[in-house]
Amino acid sequence: MEKSLIAFIEKSIKDHWDLDALTDYKGTTLQYKDVARKIEKLHILLQESGIQPGDKVAICGRNSAHWGVAFLSVLTYGAVAVPILHEFKADNIHNIVNHSDARLLFAGDVVWEAINEARMPKLEGIILMTDFTLQVCRSKKLEYAREHLNEMFGKKFPKNFRREHVSYRRDNPEELAVINYTSGTTSFSKGVMLPFRSLWSNTQFAFEVLTLNAGDKVVSMLPMAHMYGLAFEFLYEFTCGCHVYFLTRIPSPKIIFQAFADVKPNIIIAVPLIIEKIIKKSVLPKLETFKMKVLLKVPLINDKIKATVREQMIKGFGGNFYEIVVGGAAFNQEVEKLLRSLDFPYTVGYGMTECGPIICYEDWKRFKAGSCGKVAPRMEIKIDSPDPENIVGEILTRGDNVMLGYYKSPEATEQAIDSEGWLHTGDLGIMDSEGNITIKGRSKNMLLGPSGQNIYPEEIEDKLNNMPYVAESIIIQQNDNKLAALIYPDFEIAYAQGLSDKDIEEAMETNRTTLNTELPAYSQIARVKIYPEEFEKTPKKSIKRFLYQEVK
Predict the structure, then answer these.
(1) Taking residues 7-23, what's their average pLDDT?
(2) How confident is the model at residue 542, as a pLDDT?
(3) Per residue in 369-387, pLDDT tens?
C-alpha cells in the first residue's frame, strides 16, 4: 500500500470528479472538479511567485470551502501549511506568521480586517480567501502571476482542464507537512511539526475505523486550524469522497441544530461542550419533570420512555449518523451517564496536536464508559507507573502519528520526546487489562476551551499579574467550563494609596474586563475571587495549583 496522503487526495479527486465536495452552509458548493481547478490555479500562483517546496504558507480564517482549497493546494504543491486559529487576536497572528517564517498568508475577511501587515515584514503577500485576490503584495513576481493567472491557466490547459490532468507530486513520510501552533504567544506557543506520515496515518486510521462512503455528508463545526477538526471533519472526508458542509458563522447550538436537520450528517465529530449544550437545552428539561421522574422508576414504562428519548435525540442530531465521536476535552459525567443509559451511539477519543491528533479510540458498540478507548493503529501506549491498572501515571505514546518535534525549539522537543521515541503527553491515566485508557488528569497546566482550544493559564496570569494591585494570580476552570481568576492583591500598595477593601474588589473587576479585551472569546475570565493571603508555593517557588481548583 502506498503510504501517501497526497496519493489519497489525488485519487479522491479523480474518483469523485462530479460529486459535491465542499459547501459553505447556506452558500456556494464546489464539486471535486472545481476544487481540482482551483488547486491547479493556486499551484501556478505559488510557482510563478517563486515559492519553493518546503517554504511556509500560513492560512488563517473561519472554516470555509476556500480554506480547504488553500490547505490542499499548499500541501499538494510541496509547501508547508501553517494553519492559524482565526480566534487569535491580531498580535498572536503576527507572532505565528513571523515565527513560522511564512512567505505568504491566506487570510479570511474577518482576519484581514484585524491584522496589520506592517507587523509581518517577512510576508511577500496576503491573499484574501474569499476570492483569492491579493490584498498585500511585496513581490513583483507574485503581482504578475496574480494578474495573469487565468491566461497562464488557459495556456497550460488549452483544451479544458480534465481529470487526467490531475497529477500531484508524492510526499515522503518524514517530510514536514504542517506546523500547527498550540497557542498564540510565542513565549508559550510551540509550533508542532507534523510530517506526512502523521497525516497519512491519521487518515488511514479513519478509513479503518469509521464508516463513511463517497457521497456521505458531514457538518464541519470544529476549527480547521485545530488538528482534530482538520483530520476528522475535512481530510478524511475529502479523501473518501464525502460532501463537507462548513458552518462559516460561529457555531451556536441553534445554528448547529438547524444544520443537522438540513444536512443529516452520516457521522458527527464534536467536542463535549456542543453535545452537552444540545442535550441540556432539548433533552434534560423533558426528563426532569415530576411525571417523567415517576415514570422512569417503573421498569417497563422506563424502557419505552428511554427508547422514545433516544429516538428524539437521534432525530435532533439529524437522524442519519452512525455515531458521535467526542474528543478534545473531558466529558461531563452526568451527560455521559444519560447517554449510556439510553444506549446512545457515542464514543470518546483521545489525542493531542503532537499526534496529529489521534492516540486512542474505540467504536461506540465496544466503548467502555468513562474511558477514551484503546490505542489507535500504528501507535503504542504505556503508562509510566509501577501498576498501570491501579496506580495513575503519565501516558506515553509513540508511533507513526507522532510529530517530528517543535519548530525552532530543540530543547522543548527533547523534553517531550525521549531517547526511545516515547512522547510524554503530560496527561495522567490508567489502562485496564483490555487496554482501555482512562484519563485521570493533566500533569501539565493546560486547560481546554469549549471547542478544544488550548488555554495556557500561565499566559493569562502573566498579563493579569502586570495589572494594578495584583500581586499574584491563578486561572482555573470551573465546573461549567468557564474560567475564573483567583487573585491575591497587593494589599500593601492598595492600602498605602488609601483604597478600601471594596475599592480593591472594584479594581479587580476592572482588571478582569480590561484583560478580557486582550483575550480570545474562548479564554475570557468569567469571574474573580480575591484571596486574603499568598498562595502556597513549592520549594521552587511555583504556586501549588492543585490546592486551588475551586472558586468557593
Answers:
(1) 98
(2) 66
(3) 889 999 999 999 999 999 9
CA dihedral 544, 546, 550, 552 (to 10 degrees): -50
What is the predicted pLDDT for the residue at 215? 98
**Burial classification of residue 133, based on how many CB atoms lie within 10 Å of its CB (0-12 exposed, 13-18 middle, 19 or more buried):** exposed
527: left (phi over 0), alpha (psi -120 to 50) or beta: beta
pLDDT at 302 over 70: yes
Whether 249 contacts 83, CB under 8 Å: no
pLDDT over 60 at 540, yes or no? no
**Which pTM value belongs to this model?**
0.86
Who contacts 163 (Cβ-Cβ below 8 Å, separation ≥6)? Answer: 13, 14, 17, 33, 36
Task: Locate 275 and state its grid cell.
Answer: 453535545
The continuous run of DSSP H or E covering 350 comes out as strand 350-351
Write the pLDDT tens digit of every residue in 410-421. Answer: 999 999 999 999
Neighbours of 140 (CB within 10 A): 10
CA distance 102 to 80: 9
Phi, psi of 110 (to 5 degrees): -65, -40
Cα distance from N-terminal residue to C-terminal residue, the chain:
57
Please report where in the chains the cell 505565528 appears, as a residue.
96
CA distances to 127, 189, 342, 362, 402 from 209, rounded to whole Å, are: 37, 32, 23, 8, 19
**Vertex 20 angle, CA 14 and 22, to 5°:** 100
Q: Rounded to an integer, what distance in angstroms lies between the CA atom of residue 406 and that of residue 410? A: 7
Query: Rg (Cα) of the chain, in Å, rounded?
Result: 25
C-alpha grid cell, residue 248: 462559516
Range among 175-189, 209-223, 330-344 rated most confident: 209-223
Amino acid at site 429: G
Pairing state of beta strands 324-326 and 346-348? parallel
Residue with cell 428524539: 312
In the sheet that holds 29-31, the strands lie side by side as 29-31, 20-24, 243-246, 217-220
Residue 550 burial (C-beta neighbours within 10 Å; 0-12, 13-18, 19+):
exposed
- Asked if 99 and 407 count as a contact pair (C-beta separation under 8 A), the reply is yes
> What span, in angstroms and rounded, lies between the C-alpha atoms of 232 and 254?
23
| Average pLDDT of the residues of the chain | 91
Edge-to-edge strand list for the sheet holding 358-361: 350-351, 358-361, 374-375
Q: State how far the Cα of 456 lies from the Cα of 438, in Å rounded to an integer.
A: 23
Domain 456-547 belongs in CATH node 3.30.300.30: yes
The answer, yes or no, to whether residue 352 has pLDDT greater than 80, is: yes
The whole-angstrom separation of Cα 451 and Cα 223 is 8
H or E stretch including 337? helix 333-341
Q: What one-letter code names the amino acid at 313?
A: M
Rounded to 5°, the CA angle 280-281-283 comes to: 70
> C-alpha grid cell for residue 327?
474528543
Contact by Cβ (8 Å): 104, 127: yes
The CA distance from 26 to 30, in Å, is 13
Q: Cell 472569546 sits at which residue? A: 521
Query: How far apart (Å, rounded) are the C-alpha atoms in residues 394 and 386?
Result: 11
> Residue 274: what pLDDT?
79
Rounded to whole angstroms, the Cα distance separating 167 from 10 reads 7
